[in-house]
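We now fix the convention by which a protein and its fold are recorded. These numbers are not coordinates but entries in a learned vocabulary of local backbone shapes. A record is reproduced here so that you can trace the correspondence yourselves:
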Amino acid sequence: MLVVTITHPVEDYARWKSAFDGFEVEREASGTKFERVLQDVDDPNMVTVVMGFSDRAQADSFLGLPALKDAMQAAGVSGEPKFHFMNQVASYDH
């Protein structure tokens, strides 16, 4: 499984979260396996989204959607997103 993290500042977390939740159909249609939303402890307007995909091509397809860029802008993403692509090699829940 490919895991992508997307970190970026937002103007207002509540506004951003509402827009994120409203993009669920598009995420599911793009084949996301899971999504996690993380909020910085010291800066609640710094957000990291963790998403799982079957492979890099699927992730690139989703991240290249013009609708995603438009949704991020409308949600108040206020800085350039930082993307990291990683292969999941283990997973543990306690």
Observations:
- The first strand starts at residue 2 and ends at 9.
- The mean pLDDT is 96.
- DSSP finds four helices and four strands in the chain.
- Helices lie at 13-22, 24-29, 56-63, 66-75.
